[in-house]
């Protein structure tokens, strides 16, 4: 059973969507290796996509080769100072209850959380390296919530600019009691 609970409205103000998360880093500043095997598979695939010393380019990445991960994958286009969902996996849509493919962050209804969400993804672009996170996402008039683990991987163009983020999100089951 997924961990769901009612989030008090006063915690969110006027938002109908929100989240909290924490980045997971090793002492050397690189991201902690994901604990979920699906995220680990994507991380390893991304790391192997380019040759030694080369940047992972769009032409190197074929998410369909990771069929077990694909329902959890989302790909973002970097569009100036914002991001557009190029693809969002069916499991993410199912768990969160909405479809976002083709929409920018501004069109997704993040409300007061928009700037925070954009900053978190902009950090991956600026740092030019993976970020793993764990947190909670909550949404809707009932303020449903789910725990998740996430990985965000930069994908570069031929000139070395980050043009996409290859990401995945998995939701954690509540431990049985």
Automatic annotation (TrEMBL):
Pfam families in the cross-refs: PAS_5 (PF07310)
InterPro entries: DUF1457
Protein name, UniProt field: PAS domain-containing protein
Organism: Marinibaculum pumilum
């Amino acid at each position: 059973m997924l961990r769901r609970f009612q989030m008090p409205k006063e915690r969110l103000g006027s938002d109908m969507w929100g989240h909290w998360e924490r980045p997971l880093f090793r002492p050397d500043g690189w991201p902690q290796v994901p604990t979920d095997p699906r995220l680990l598979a994507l991380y390893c695939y991304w790391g192997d996509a380019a040759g030694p010393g080369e940047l992972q380019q769009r032409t190197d990445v074929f998410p369909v080769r990771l069929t077990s991960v694909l329902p959890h994958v989302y790909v973002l286009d970097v569009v100036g100072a914002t991001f557009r969902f190029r693809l969002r996996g069916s499991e993410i849509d199912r768990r969160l209850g909405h479809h976002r493919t083709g929409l920018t962050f501004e069109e997704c209804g993040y409300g007061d959380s928009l700037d925070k969400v954009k900053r978190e993804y902009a950090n991956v672009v600026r740092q030019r390296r993976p970020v793993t996170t764990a947190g909670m996402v909550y949404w809707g008039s009932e303020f449903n919530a789910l725990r998740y683990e996430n990985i965000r991987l930069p994908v570069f163009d031929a000139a070395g600019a980050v043009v996409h983020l290859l990401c995945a999100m998995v939701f954690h089951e509540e431990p049985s009691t």
